[in-house]
Amino acid sequence: MQPYVKSFRYGWSSWSILVIAFITVFFHRLSVGSVADELTREIPMNSVTLGNLTAMNYYAYALMQIPVGILVDRIGVRKINFCGLLVTAAGSILFGLAHTLEAAYLSRFLVGIGSSVIIVSIFKIQATWFPLSRFSALSGLTSFFGNFGSLLALYPLTFLSLTFGWRNVFYWMAGISLLLALLVLWGVRDARTEIYSPPRETAAAGSTGPTGSVSPLSRKHSQTPEHTSTAVKPLPFLAYLKESLSCVLKNPRTWPNVLILFAFTGSSTTLLGLWGIPLMTQLYSLDKATAAGYVTFATFGFILGAPLISLWVRLLKGIRPALLAGTGLNLLLWIYIVIIAGGRPAAELWPAFFFIFGLLIMTHILAFSNVTAVNPLNYSGMATAITNMAEFIGSSLASLTIGLILDFSGNPSAAWWVILSMAALGFMAALLMKEQPAS
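Structure (tokenized):
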């Protein structure tokens, strides 16, 4: 079989399996909000404790991103995804068995550790098995399919938990994770330079421009389809860690992408992962199923917005303009909700607001395209891991802040100021971004 044919087959099979696994990541990430009522009845907790329980997943996810970036770059995606799915299954079983707050905390932390490996692995597959020019389109498709997990974690999970019990749902999810672990062993392949490799000398040497970004010439050259086998002796672990972290963190073009994930995407994870449904029920005295139905419109926005990512970039002529449009319109939306409508717009408007919010939020995926393009290819796992970590730091801080506001102010609409602040920070980060080199 020709190397290009192998690259095509292995690339698509690896990407497809990991994207299926990514659906479970979104499900676990957003599931606590849908079973919050049942949880608090069986395990006593206040708003701050509930926010911290949700954040346990984010703490683990954020903590693991740099180790995952190293492992993806050093040992490949197959082994770590197999192990990660086993840990996710264990965490899901423990969550179903939990009757104490400590056990619930531990289970959510394990789920965060296990699921943390998947998205960085997908980006590594995209960066190594496919041309850079396809990165944004593939990232959009990744989010499109992954967000079906968001959809399942809202109204369907609410229905299933009420019908069969929330504990049984998490036992079923553990079984799905085990099946996916076996699927990873069968169909996921690590990128091998002798199969797909274009010339990597420049990237391996960490060739960068004056701002720390990869030169357009080097990037373009590194994505050509010619078969080249270049033996590069891997650096010792500590040397690699120091060099990769230094290269990515000292690159000023990395940081706008980090801030976009911290604020822009972190706000969506905060709302969908925990506070969207409780805030709707408290503000408008809605029943839980109706509130979940309102919040579900954000996932419809995700699903529609994901395949439109490439269209945004083409119409607006670049990644930076597309992100400016997404973050800017999102800021205007929250200015209307918080300032003009006083935090309590008509309840009937919220499905449209959540849909628009989800549609705009999907432009965040372009930050991964940018951070991959402006850093050396052999550090792509580290670059995307650091960027991805920021989302969960942001959502953890926002979740806890909203919990404190609800416990001490007694005013649910005041929580929207946290989301508005994050929207403003996301827009400022997009203003600071430099356009990725042409590929």
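The two ends are 28 Å apart (CA to CA). Confidence is low (pLDDT under 50) at residues 1-5, 193-232.
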